[in-house]
Amino acid sequence: MQINNYSILEKPLITEKSTMMQEQGNRVMFQVNRNANKLQIKEAVQKIFNVTVLDVNTINVKPKSKRFGRHQGQTKAFKKAIVLLKEGDRIDFFDGV
C-alpha cells in the first residue's frame, strides 16, 4: 500500500523533551500515520525537508483513560517517530519566529 509523503507525517511533536532532543542530539519527533513503517517515514522526512536521515525509532503510544466529571473516555492512540538527522542538518519548525 503506497501512502502519500504528506499523509505519513501528520504533525511535529513539540514538547520539552523533543525540544531538548533537537538541541542536544539532533533528533526530531513526529506524529506519524499508524500504518507507516520506518522506511516510509525516512523517505518522507528526506523528501519533504531535504535532510539526511540516519535512523528512525518508532513508538506506538497507547490511549490513556480520562475522566470529565462523571463521564469517562480515552485519548486517541497514535504512533510517534524519533528521527536522527545527519550532523549539520536541521529542521526548524519556528524558523520565522
Give the SSE map.
Blueprint: H1 5-8, E1 9-12, H2 16-25, E2 27-32, H3 38-49, E3 53-61, E4 65-68, E5 71-74, E6 78-85
Antiparallel strand pairs: 1-2, 2-6, 3-6, 4-5
- CA(first)-CA(last) distance: 38 Å
Name given to the CATH architecture: 2-Layer Sandwich
Tally of separate helices: 3
CATH fold-level label: Alpha-Beta Plaits
The spatial strand order of the largest sheet comes to 1-2-6-3
Number of separate domains:
1
Number of strands: 6
> What share of residues are in beta strands?
35-45%
- Please state the structural category: alpha+beta
- So what's the CATH class? Alpha Beta
The value of Rg in angstroms is: 15 Å
Helix content: 25-40%
Instruction: Please tell me the overall pLDDT.
Output: 91
**Global outline:** globular
Poorly predicted runs: none
Which homologous superfamily in CATH is the superfamily?
Answer: RRM (RNA recognition motif) domain
Order of helices and strands: HEHEHEEEE
The biggest sheet, with number of strands, parallel, antiparallel or mixed sense and barrel status, is: 4 strands, antiparallel
